[in-house]
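Here is a typical protein record:
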Amino acid sequence: MAKEYTGKDLGAEDLYFVPLGGTGEIGMNLNLYGHKGAWLMVDLGIIFGDPRLPGIDVEMPDPEFIVQRREDLAGLILTHAHEDHIGAVPYLWPELRCPVYATKFTAALVRRKLAEVGLLDEVPLIEVPLSGTFQVGPFEIELVTLTHSIPEPNAVIIRTAAGTVLHTGDWKFDPEPLVGETYDEQRLKALADENVLAMVGDSTNSMVWGEAGSESDVRRHLLEVVRPLKKRVAVACFASNVARLETVIHVAEECGRRVCLLGRSMHRIVECAREAGYLRDHQPFVSEDEIDFLPREAVLLLCTGSQGEPRAALWRIARGDHPSVALDAGDTVVFSSRVIPGNETTIFELQNSLAEMGIAVVTDHDHEIHVSGHPGRDELIQMYQWVRPQVAVPVHGEARHLAAHAEIAKQCQVPQQIVGRNGMVVRLAPGNAEVVDTVPSGRLVYDGRRLLSRDSPVLKGRQKMMFNGAVAVTLVMDERGALDGEPDISTVGLFEPHEEEEDLAAVEIAIADAVQRLGRRERKDDAAVEEAAAQAARRAINRLLGKKPMVMVHVIRFE
């Protein structure tokens, strides 16, 4: 019988795959491969904060499983520079302390992230070439150039004594990516003769028929949109999509317009792209302070904020609080992006605000001005026909995406399909691939300057305050254990100013009665007094408002 996973003693015949993030969800990718006493990590990403978690900007996978084994962690390979693949590095690397491998463009972005948190001189960041080969512990690594919505996306061939895995990362087949190299078709085809054990692959668009589409098509359609416009134009897109930035710059120049970059991430991405050899053959950008000296028809604003982010440049313009840039009636805003699920409310609010200002809004529903960076069903089929793995392991998708991907693999006659979730332990070798165990997995959030579990009482308390309000009660007790004066009450998020005084009087009476009903011994016990007062306050406010707020009681005693 094949050996099951124990968490220790990974032998030369053993090969395990353990996703801790990005399987059963889109974002927060963290993947582990175990072999011959060592672990290899592929990607370490984030997602941006859930509106249901007030005060939280980013979430990331909980790496506790591998932190406990960090002496066996040989290295971290970053497939490309999107936040859901690299964003957690500055937060979690201090817990891992392993070498990090990335190609030039990805390394440029990671360096800036590390510098912001004071880790630049501490993290061993190793720059590797496109299509490069290198050794990480017992894992022999080869990068395969693919195409995506960012430069230098890589599939990772992981060779071990137990078998070979192709980890695709994020990809699509774009014959004209405009920035960077196109996908390495010959190398992918050659894998069919190399007996690939497993393909661990992107499932994002496994439910979408056809192909993702090419950046060259976007360029043609975007030029058709912008050319006839007469006044100022703003284009919002994902800053990380360097090919799209290059397209917008090209379109602007074709239409006789100068480009102004708006948003910190736009400037950072352009800086990294130029450092890696991209975006160099264009006119100089104009600054925010210079655009009003140019005719409105001679300017194109390249903006952050395509997802309705409240602090991004486009929202600030829409609110009229950008320090140096404004849009007027008759101007046009082009959204060269898709609506990420969950962002609909903020995006539509932004677009409606622009429309109310008399600004024309153009989206991908009006013209073909956006293409996905992930493979459609036809591209997945083509990849399986080229690689011919023995096992398909869908990742980077929600449960429905993983199931659809597995069905495609089955139709492509891949002998085995493993559909799992974060924390599953997949034994790829020896023997038939199967899920043999689970390990702890979860989410961490970055709260101010600290990492917390998503299940932290801190967040639960904050959620309760957000939905039900909060009450603070101060009780002064004399030496006999009796109330000295009326309870002092303050509330947040409960009462309108004109109703607060009368309603709080009823709450004060309820609290005083509850405390006075306590026995003499209980009145001298702070915990008993706090519980009675809190319960009375909750009940009184529930009767008044139908709310069950968070209640905090502070007892002061005079001896």
Observations:
- DSSP finds 16 helices and 29 strands in the chain.
- The first helix runs from residue 64 to 67.
- The first strand starts at residue 15 and ends at 21.
